[in-house]
Amino acid sequence: MPRIAPTLLPAAGTRHWRPMTEPQHLRTGGSFTLNECASVSGASDWWQQGFVSAQKTPAVQDVLSFTTSGAARGAYREVVTGLGGCRQRTRDYQKRYGLTPDATMRRTATAPDGGAWSRHWTGVQGISADGVQTNHLYVVRRGRQLVLLHFDEWAKNAAPAYDTRQDPSVLESLAAGPTAP
């Protein structure tokens, strides 16, 4: 498993991340859903590692393998496109479930074949954690793999807010990390 070290996760000094379980290797069946906004197709393998912070919030690293680097590049574009429409899609979910549509979404960093986003919104119970939260999403393409990382900040688990100016270094860590078999 091309697992990121907990010390390289965002805000490691204040979140004190630790693995929740051993890394898992799964077959994808060809499609993978990152969140309500982004999904990819064509993955042949999926590795996942979950983390939990001292504030009891989650982070998850996923690594998807594709048969070619071109397929991974296409999957990267699928994620970027999905996240580009995430604000409106999230607001539509909120309306459907009777919440005030308050979602905002912004791209916080870019890198060659990589990007970071931050979504702030009131979550929809059953689709996500409920309540006010900020989701941080990272995606990097490395050869024939797509490396995804996300972590959540929940208002009810108050902690110092994560500074997204750190996002370029998160993307560098994901791009430089080990590759899956």
For the largest beta-sheet, the strand count, sense and barrel status come to: 8 strands, antiparallel
Fraction of residues in helix: 10-25%
Which class of secondary structure composition applies to the elements?
alpha+beta
Say what the CATH topology is.
Answer: Protein Transport Mog1p, Chain A
Short description:
The protein is of the alpha+beta class and 181 residues long. Helix content is 23%, strand content 39%. The protein has one domain (6-176): Protein Transport Mog1p, Chain A (3-Layer(aba) Sandwich), CATH 3.40.1000.
How would you sum up this structure, described in words?
- The structure is a single chain.
- By secondary structure, the chain is of the alpha+beta class.
- Helix content is 23%, strand content 39%.
- The chain has a single domain (6-176), classed as 3-Layer(aba) Sandwich (Protein Transport Mog1p, Chain A).
- The chain has helices at 12-15, 69-84, 86-96, 167-176; strands spanning 18-19, 24-26, 30-33, 39-43, 45-52, 58-65, 104-111, 114-123, 131-142, 145-154.
- The chain starts with 11 loop residues before the first helix and ends in a 5-residue tail after the last helix.
